[in-house]
Amino acid sequence: MADIASTLPLETASIHHAYGKFRRYVHRTPLLTNKTIDRIASSNAGSGAFKARGAFHAVTHLIEVMGLDELRRRGLVTHSSGNHAQALALAASTFDIPAHIVMPEISTPSKIAGTRAYTELIRFSGSTSQEREEVVAQVIAETGAVLVPPYDHPDIILGQGTASLELYEQYNSQQAEGGVESTLKVVLAPLGGGGLLSGTAVFFSDKPGTAVIGCEPSYQGGNDGERGLNAVPPTRIETVKTLTIADGLRTPVGAIPWDVFTSGSSTKPKYLEGVYSVPEEEIKEATRLVMERMKVFIEPSAAVPLAVVLYNQKFRRWVYERQQAEGTECWDIVIILSGGNTTIEALIGIFGDVRDADTQRAEGVVASDGSTTVENVAG
Amino acid sequence: MADIASTLPLETASIHHAYGKFRRYVHRTPLLTNKTIDRIASSNAGSGAFKARGAFHAVTHLIEVMGLDELRRRGLVTHSSGNHAQALALAASTFDIPAHIVMPEISTPSKIAGTRAYTELIRFSGSTSQEREEVVAQVIAETGAVLVPPYDHPDIILGQGTASLELYEQYNSQQAEGGVESTLKVVLAPLGGGGLLSGTAVFFSDKPGTAVIGCEPSYQGGNDGERGLNAVPPTRIETVKTLTIADGLRTPVGAIPWDVFTSGSSTKPKYLEGVYSVPEEEIKEATRLVMERMKVFIEPSAAVPLAVVLYNQKFRRWVYERQQAEGTECWDIVIILSGGNTTIEALIGIFGDVRDADTQRAEGVVASDGSTTVENVAG
Questions:
Q1: Residue A99 phi, psi (nearest 5)
Q2: Which residues have CB under 8 Å from B179's CB, separation 6+?
Q3: Which of A7, A43, A131, A168 can pair with B154 through a Cys bridge, CB separation 3.0 to 4.6 Å?
Q4: What spatial distance separates the first Cα and last Cα of chain B, rounded to whole Å?
Q5: Residue B125 and residue B118: Cα distance in Å, rounded?
Q6: How close is the nearest chain A Cα to the Cα of B207, in Å?
Q7: Do the chains contact at A11 and B60, CB–CB below 8 Å?
Q8: What local confidence, expressed as pLDDT, does residue B228 receive?
Q9: Is the CB of residue B60 less than 8 Å from the CB of residue A21?
Q10: Contacts of B107 (CB under 8 A, 6+ apart)
């Protein structure tokens, strides 16, 4: 070490001097307020994921159409296993509108607690769509509440589409700051009921250079979107029963999102480029990477698009072939990370099993390339 | 839900329109590059924590004093259980200087792997200071390598003090943007060997309105700083053997940091206001809060200052009494979160035990106030 005689005195000015010497080698560490950290963690105004955008848009539109007094008198109702439940309860409480939430009994405790933070009007149901809808019908009969479905409505889709509007603005301003002119080639979003993905597809429908890709869990047929779209002719699958760890993506694709996925616009032959799915182990490994490398605490559903980028051979081949055709080796890819509603206990439930040597070897592979392939997929 | 007839068509322009209606209710979701996420997670240039600042400053100063060629010929050596090991290996590799790292055999695998990413010259030792120093002496005898100690040197202290310089600049510019004029009242930093805390104390030594507080784990006497400073007369404790989960804070306070802690400047009667410690359960709960609420993946050492703010009654009373004296109920407090070098497996090791009802009740308390008390401690 440098002789202590050659060091500067331990006073404030010496720290300024030290900083000048090495500041170019270290990143500036941001000062985060609690709110900022929440925001960075991809939650919106305290709810999980991008669901808040759909819920706020639906509620503001209902206020325009029905008037706030009428809406306050009747209240709102929805069914959801988690993120939409919280999002609607938050949006409703913002305008002092009562919100009845029907949640499946098997919902994760953190999502129930998160919902209860905004409304006391929670009822529990069985987990099938039919069981949920029965309880919703009962609430409507009793109270006259107005239904805000979790994904199958244009207002939800347009609201969730605004996440893409923001990401596109930020992408373009980062390009402008860097003096770079490149195209956003691919946007990947998770696919459950299809609200976020169809909103994303709608936003990019006038941008022919950007492909929108859906990402699903394959476990127990959870890839209903992929299977339905690849069928000849494409056929929507209306019932899915999967207990995938990506619990935010267990629902079948809704009718209106499905229509978006199977249509095109004047500038784009198809709104949706395709859907790819990944098995549980790959979702786990992507969740691990986001936590351990990116240091962001997410729920497994949020890691599904990263798992597709890193591990899905069909997706990687599609990218490779397009890149070959274009004569490039580097593409800008954006992944929508949506959902941070989980707990350490849930994580232990998922990762706490004894893991065999093969899995650990597989991780070695992950660790060696994971951190560099998130944004640019080399050909 | 609003009648579908009243909704806008599913096209890009409708999303812009939707956004205008509710944008004031949701946070803008940032577009993060992988690098950005790393940076936000408090790591510096890939190393854990703020150790990189100390290491880069020490290495740049050595280059000035000895010349780069001589330093490349001789190499560098240090002993560290983790973050400083990685930091020095990174700084050395930036300048193509060989770095010998002596790590205790019980170091966590992620920290060993992180170090190995920058240097192959790793040797293992026992975990006491004496055992580590013996192996270091051997390396020096064999290679002529120059020692860069983990914390007990002015260059390390000044380098780590630059974290405070940045946080203070950002604090002031956030105040200016908000049109607010308030004083940063307290900065809390973790205390292990004392490099980061003494650097923090030095930086704020010419700012009499800002108190600097050290935070330690109390398990198995890990609060050597607190015990030593509260002794009459204050006496540095040179040996500590604790296996606290805050493994980055197991080392005793170094001699030079100790001198800083027990001295004052012309504008400040004492550099360090005090040291407070917290038991393992409180460190666990603070770690849980940062992960589940702030969605940031950290190692338990990083959560120690938050645990002090939330749970240490002595610290809270000190704040309360000062606030009473000042006639205020709200203070700006900054917590330095340092260290994200952990794995899901390590987390399972810490949280994976069966937890009894009392613990879970205690968490209820945490959950009900945790998210609002991080930055402002009400009286």
A1: -130, 120
A2: none
A3: A7
A4: 45
A5: 19
A6: 9
A7: no
A8: 97
A9: yes
A10: B81, B82, B85
| Cβ separation A348–B345 shorter than 8 A | no
Cβ pairs bridging A and B (under 8 Å): 303
Of A16-25, A131-140, A163-172, the poorest mean pLDDT is in: A16-25
In this predicted structure, which of A151-165, A223-237, B215-229 has the lowest mean pLDDT? A151-165
Q: What is the mean pLDDT of residues A272-299?
A: 91
Distance in angstroms (rounded) separating the CA atoms of residues A225 and A236 = 7
CA distance B357 to A85: 28
B chain contacts of residue A206, beta-carbon cutoff 8 Å: 11-12
Mean pLDDT, chain A, rounded, equals 82
CA–CA gap between residue A68 and residue A62 (Å, rounded): 8
pLDDT at B158 over 80: yes
Q: Is A272 helix (H, G, I), strand (E, B) or coil?
A: coil
Residue A179 has a CB neighbour count (10 Å cut-off) of 6
Q: Give ipTM to 2 decimals.
A: 0.70
What is the structure's pLDDT at A222? Answer: 97
Closest CA to A74 of A43, A95, A44: A95
Out of B2, B166, B202, whose CB is closest to A29? B166
The partner residues of B76 in beta bridges, in order of sequence, read: B99, B146
Output the CA torsion sign for B217, B222, B223, B229: negative
Sign of CA dihedral B199, B49, A296, B35: positive
Average pLDDT of the segment spanning B75-88? 88
- Please give, rounded to a whole number of angstroms, the shortest distance from the CA of A79 to a CA of chain B: 13
Place of tokens 């002090």: B308
Mark yes or no for CB contact A1/B288 under 8 Å.
Answer: no
Of A194, A264, A277, A268, nearest in space to A236 by CA: A194
pTM listed for this prediction = 0.76
Tokens representing A223 are: 């890839």
Q: For the ranges A278-292, A348-362, B43-57, B120-134, which has the lowest average pLDDT? A: A348-362
Confidence of residue A354 (pLDDT cuts 50, 70, 90): very low
Long-range contacts of B121-128 (CB under 8 A, 24+ apart): B121/B75, B125/B79, B127/B81, B128/B241
Interval B102-112 mean pLDDT: 86
Question: How far apart (Å, rounded) are the C-alpha atoms in residues B338 and B41?
Answer: 9
Whole-number percent of chain A with pLDDT over 70: 84
What pLDDT band is residue B359 in, cutting at 50, 70 and 90? very low
* Contact between residue A77 and residue A102 where contact means Cβ atoms under 8 Å apart: yes
∠ CA(A123), CA(A129), CA(A135), 5° rounding? Answer: 30
How much helix, strand and coil, in percent to the nearest 5, is found in chain A?
55, 10, 35
| Long-range contacts, stretch B113-120, CB < 8 angstroms, 24+ apart | B113/A367, B114/B47, B114/B48, B114/B82, B114/B86, B114/B341, B115/B82, B115/B85, B115/B86, B115/B89, B117/B46, B117/B86, B117/B89, B118/B86, B118/B89, B118/B90, B118/B92, B118/B93, B119/B89, B119/B92, B119/B93
> How far is residue B175's CA from residue B166's CA, in Å, rounded to a whole number?
14
Residue A248 CA to residue A339 CA, distance in Å, equals 8
A28 contacts in B (CB within 8 Å)? Answer: 39, 166
Q: How far apart are CA A213 and CA B366, in angstroms?
A: 40
Instruction: Fill in the DSSP letter of residue B106.
Output: T
Q: Look at residue B232 and give its three-state secondary structure.
A: coil
Q: What is the pLDDT of residue B292?
A: 84
For the purposes of burial, counting CB atoms within 10 Å of the CB of A210, is it exposed (0-12), middle (13-18) or buried (19 or more)?
A: buried
Residue A204 CB burial class (10 angstroms; 0-12, 13-18, ≥19): buried
Quickly tell me which residue has 């935070």 as its tokens: B215
B204 chain-A contacts, CB cut-off 8 A: 12
The pLDDT score that the predictor gives to residue A37 is 34
Residue A87: per-residue pLDDT: 87
Helices (H), B30-153: 34-40, 51-66, 68-74, 83-94, 109-116, 129-143
What is the total residue count of chain B?
379
